[in-house]
Amino acid sequence: MGVLIGFAIIGAVISVGYLIGRFALLGPAAEHVLSRLSFFVLFPALLFTVLAEADVRHLFSALLPISAVAAVVDFTVFLLIALLLWRRSLPEATVGALSSGYVNANNIGLPVSAYVLGDASSSVPVLLLQLIVVAPIALTVLDVSTSGKLSVGRALMQPVRNPLIIGSLLGLIVALTHVQLPAPVLAPFQLIGAAAVPVILLNFGMSLHGQRALAPGTHRKDVLLASSLKLAVMPVVAWLLGALVWQLRGHQLFVVVVLAALPTAQNVFNYAQRYGRGVTIARDTVLITTALSIVALVIIAALLAPT
User: What CATH code is carried by the domain that includes residue 40?
Assistant: First the structure.
């Protein structure tokens, strides 16, 4: 029951955001402003406070390798089909591969972690893995395949210039060194970070208004393949690895599978826009997986959630 209540809370806030977008209550620039506010201010503060008070052992648990392997399986399957069978270009195949396995560990993952899994730091290891390892590799491939030149500086500096990574690394340093920050120092970050989850959910609901997936002339096969890998294959791979290889049970196994079933991250759409390749694939996969992930997560909760 607690899991369903958590999903209901998230769905209610997203619905409010949809109504805000439907009636244009905040004006045409609202989504852009809220997105930048969340990315540069709210989420870094939240990640800093979550990590500063987190159990370091949890951050480097079996969740990390399981998430990495499940993502690589999805990336590999999509790339093989897209490049060898459908003869897609490397940039489009790269965006499609990201769409199939790059999970929304912040916008949806943090709320799900807080309200469903009972620990706001649950999705942080996955978030760090994607921002520090997956994103730089993918951006390097997109750089080379779209410009013909390798931008080593951009590839190396991309993680360092990301405010989410900066906030995360600072929080991680505090956790690793066991520094006890005075309450007055931590309080502003906690207050600002507390706004991250509701603002992101509202903004996400606003973004759903007016969207139409699988329109004529789009790469429907790519979108359907990426969506299927994301919502079905990735959670199953995570479950197999967790249950059979790492021998996880109960709440630990539930956490691993839930995080693998999260929808495609909106960052993938941002990367596609940045390079002007695979934009429709990323947009439609984000929309479809987000809409259907609630169904997948409820099914997973019914099967695996500890009673």
Answer: 1.20.1530.20
